[in-house]
Structure formats: C-alpha cells, structure tokens
C-alpha cells in the first residue's frame, strides 16, 4: 500500500512542475521582488502583520495543532455521537494513537508552521531592510514556529533566503535545531522590550518575558529534542535546569505573579499571569464541547463534541460523582477552584463582564466553568434536556446504544465537558492566552526537582491559591499531575506526558497494540514533503 501511495504522489509531482509545498517553500511573486530567487520584501511591517494573522488563525483552531497536542492524550476525546463527529474516524484515530501518513491533522500543521518560519526569514533577510523592532518580533515568531515543528515532527526544513529558490532547504534536527532556535531567542531576550505583568494589550507582542518563557520551555525538553530521532532517552542536563530557574526568576522580576482567581485569567482583561496572548478567537474552544441546548452563545448552542476522560477529571480534588458550585460560583466544600463546576441555575451577565452580585444584568448563560458533569440547568433552575427530551446530564463514561463502553454510537450526553473560556465573557473574544506565569512557575519547580531540590513549598503555594490541599511532599508524578490540573486544554499535555515518560502508557480507548509504541512520540513527515525535499527522511517507524 505504501508503494502505491508513493507512486501516486510521484506521478502527481512530475506532472505538476508548479507543485508547491512548504518544504519546497516557493515564494509568491506578490510577496517580494523576484529575479534570481528572493530579493527582499517591499513592506516588511505588512508582512509581519500577515504573519501574526496566520499565527492567530492557527492557534484558534480546535483541529490540527491543537488536536495533536491535546486529542492525542488523556485530556481530550471526541466520541462519535450518532452521525456527529464521525469524520471517517479522524478524531478517534488521534486519541487511540492510530494516525497514519495522510491525516489532515498531521499534514496541515507541518505546512502551516513551515510557511510561518519562511515568512519570518523573509522579514529577517537583510534585503528586506526591516526596522529593528520588526526583525525582533519576526525572530521570535520564527523561533516559535521552528519549535513547533521540532516538537511535533523532529525535523525542520529550513530555507536560507539568500540561496536560489531552486536550492533544497537544509534539514535541522536534534542539537543543531535546538541551537538555532535558542540563538534566535537569545537575540530576542537582548532586544525585545520589558513588558510587565498586567501590561494588557501590549502583551499581544512578545517581550523579554515571552522569549525567556519559550527558551525555558525548550531547555526543559532539550534532552527529548536532542535524542528524538536516535532512539530517545537521555536525562535533563543540570546546567539547562539551572538556566530554566534563572529564566523564570527573570520573568518574576518583571512583575509576573500567580493570579488568585483562576478563571479570571481567561477573560479579555489584564492580569498578572498572562505573558503572551494572541488575538485568536476563542469561539472554537467554547463551541466544541458545549451541548446544543446550553445557552449564552449568540450563534446558538454548541457543537457537542470534545470531552475528557474520567481519569483526567479525577486528578482534581472533589467528589468524583458531583461537580457543583453555588449561585455565586463558589465551589462546594472539598472542591478545588480549578475544577470549576455546574451552577444550579443560570447566571446573568452583560456583554463580556461579570461581577459577583450579578444584579441588573440583561443577558444570561447556563454554562458553568471548568469540568461540567451530571445534570445541566436552565437559566431558571429547571433541568435542561437533550434533543430527544432526556435530561441533559453529562456522564463520566462513554456508552453506546447497547450500554457498552464505546467511542462510537454515543448519545448527546456522554463525556465530561471542559469550559475554560466561558461564553459569559464573550463567545467570540479575540483573547487567547499562549504563555502564562503559572506554567513558568511550574517549570521552575520541575527544574528544581530534577536537580535534587525540593519544590514542595512552591507547589503548595500554588495549590493553596487554587483552593487545593497542600501536599506533604512532592514526587515526579505529583508535578505532572499538578501541571495537568493547572494547564488543562492549554496545549501542553502531550509535551508534558512525553517529558515525564507517560505518553506511551495505556489510557481509556487507546489501542492496546499502540501502548509503548515509540514511533508515536513524533508524527510522520507528510509524503508530499518527502518527495519535494530529499533532505527529509521519514521518522522512525513510519517508513
């Protein structure tokens, strides 16, 4: 079958001399002056804005990059509900670790992030005569794009814009890729402005803290990246961990701090935790899990798809069979704040603002915060129902029409839902947090642990702020669990599970034959890219 696929792709490639791919990285004439290859951009500032636009769109999507980062883990799952969410097994294959070479969610991110890093390199080319601030932001976005490719695919096809357009991009991997990205980030740390906590809309642009955050993230995973094409393994370097600690301390010194009210962080307003956010529409991450009969959306109800596993929900403190909050969003006793809860009746609000007394508001929502399980309620406190007239009670388990646990033939009610960006704050808000301080804080705690330190006090400081009980001591699994509780649905779960050696373990619905399969630590290089650039080689296990 593989040979047939290659023949089909090769035939198409030879017939279409104008074949375009992001590893071939052809440059459109509208983007630059063209004679013998790239000659510079006419308007680099405009090109930078276009690049930001691409990044915003990619980070707003519930599919593609987000799907690879979350749906391939224990944190997100999309069962087929009747005829809904079947999509030829697209979502099931990701969660079950059964993806192949032709999945759109595997192919599209490779093309997108490679396009982004080429666009940034064009801006950085001396012939574009870009202003220094434009170059610094382009350098950050190039580092970000190249990191995404390295993290997901292990190989970065990099085009030197000074070479003829017929030259094949070289491929960076392992130590060479890490060094290249870190060099870009060091330049950013030196030249980008200091943006402090609560800087508001200024954080749409990267500051020193954003560059330091990304550098710390890469150093924390460096032993993974350096060895991912040569059998994996390795352990963190003490010097790298010391740098992580120093980088986070510098972020703290800029005025970033843990925020006391967890769900306020995800509003369209300034807070002390946000380090970098994008004007990405949060609509998709709101609509994807919500049932059609839940209110608070200008465009009607939700899409009734994305859910989470009961085992992930059970990481949080609280009654596993109930997740309720009082009318003022106060969690019930013994329930930590981050788990959120279902209000017993609708909560009123106006526009994008919410206050505790909820008096005089004109609009309402019956959608809770965090993990939504069991009965959902209408604005007047009556029970919501699904489209068949059955009480809308989200279940912990995924059960088909015969009563069997299954990922297909589910009802509209199966699966615990997650709402982190709440429609009461605006369902089309252009404010999505990408880097935040709690993540940096936990990176420092992990770096301390990996070099023999005791991060128990740090972890407990965070837990007390989140209304969770302090721990007597902290183990490696405790740190992973704390990251799972703090950062759910923010795109970090896959990387965390890989770094802690848990990505290949069993979880509900994963194919038994894929448990322990190391090829799943990377995604395959799309076949058209292999044909377009012979410098690329297929990742181990996908040959």
From TrEMBL:
Domain of life: Bacteria
One Pfam family, short name: SusD_RagB
Region of interest: Disordered: 320-348
Subcellular location: Cell outer membrane
Chain ranges of the RagB/SusD domain: 273-542
Record keywords: Cell outer membrane, Membrane, Signal
Ranges in coiled-coil conformation: none
Family: Belongs to the SusD family.
Protein name: RagB/SusD family nutrient uptake outer membrane protein
Organism, as annotated: Maribacter cobaltidurans
């Amino acid at each position: 079958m593989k040979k047939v696929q290659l023949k089909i792709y090769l035939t198409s490639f030879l017939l279409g001399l104008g074949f375009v791919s992001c590893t071939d990285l052809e440059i459109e004439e509208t983007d630059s002056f063209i004679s013998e290859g790239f000659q510079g951009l006419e308007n680099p500032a405009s090109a930078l804005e276009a690049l930001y636009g691409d990044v915003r769109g990619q980070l707003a999507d519930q599919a593609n990059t987000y799907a690879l980062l979350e749906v391939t883990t224990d944190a997100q799952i999309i069962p087929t509900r009747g005829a809904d969410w079947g999509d030829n097994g697209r979502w099931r294959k990701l969660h079950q670790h059964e993806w192949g070479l032709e999945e759109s969610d595997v192919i599209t991110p490779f093309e997108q992030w490679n396009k982004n890093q080429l666009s940034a390199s064009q801006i950085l080319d001396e012939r574009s005569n870009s202003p220094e601030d434009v170059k610094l932001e382009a350098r950050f976005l190039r580092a970000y794009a190249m990191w995404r490719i390295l993290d997901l695919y292990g190989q970065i096809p990099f085009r030197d814009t000074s070479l003829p357009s017929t030259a094949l991009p070289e491929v960076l991997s392992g130590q060479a890729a890490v060094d290249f990205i870190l060099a870009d980030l060091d330049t950013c740390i030196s030249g980008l402005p200091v943006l402090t906590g609560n800087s508001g809309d200024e954080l749409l642009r990267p500051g020193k803290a954003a560059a330091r955050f990304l550098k710390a993230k890469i150093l924390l995973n460096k032993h993974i990246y350096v060895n991912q094409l040569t059998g994996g393994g390795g352990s963190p370097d003490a010097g790298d961990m010391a740098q992580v600690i120093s980088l986070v301390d510098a972020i703290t010194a800029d005025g970033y701090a843990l925020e006391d009210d967890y769900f306020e962080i995800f509003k369209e307003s300034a807070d002390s935790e946000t380090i970098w956010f994008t004007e990405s529409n949060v609509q998709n991450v709101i609509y994807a899990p919500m049932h059609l009969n839940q209110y608070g959306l200008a465009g009607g109800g939700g899409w009734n798809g994305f859910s989470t596993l009961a085992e992930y929900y059970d990481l949080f403190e609280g009654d596993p069979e109930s997740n309720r909050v009082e009318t003022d969003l106060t969690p019930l006793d013994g329930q930590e704040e981050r788990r959120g809860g279902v209000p017993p009746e609708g909560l009123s609000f106006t526009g994008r603002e919410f206050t505790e007394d909820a008096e005089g508001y004109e609009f309402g929502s019956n959608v809770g915060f965090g993990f939504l399980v069991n009965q959902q309620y209408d604005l007047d406190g009556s029970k919501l129902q699904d489209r068949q007239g059955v009480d809308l009670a989200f279940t912990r388990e995924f059960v088909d029409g015969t009563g069997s646990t299954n990922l297909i033939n589910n009802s509209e009610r199966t699966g615990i839902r997650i709402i982190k960006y709440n429609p009461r704050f605006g369902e089309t808000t252009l404010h999505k947090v990408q880097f935040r301080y709690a993540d940096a804080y936990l990176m420092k705690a992990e770096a301390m642990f990996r070099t023999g330190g005791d991060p128990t006090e740090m972890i407990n400081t965070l837990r007390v702020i989140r209304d969770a009980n302090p721990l007597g001591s902290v183990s490696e699994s405790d740190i992973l669990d704390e990251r799972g509780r703090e950062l759910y649905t923010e795109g970090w779960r896959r990387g965390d599970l890989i770094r802690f050696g848990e990505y290949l373990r069993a979880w509900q619905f994963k194919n038994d034959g894929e448990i322990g399969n190391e090829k799943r630590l990377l995604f395959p290089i799309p076949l058209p890219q292999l044909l377009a650039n012979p410098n690329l080689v297929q990742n181990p296990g996908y040959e």
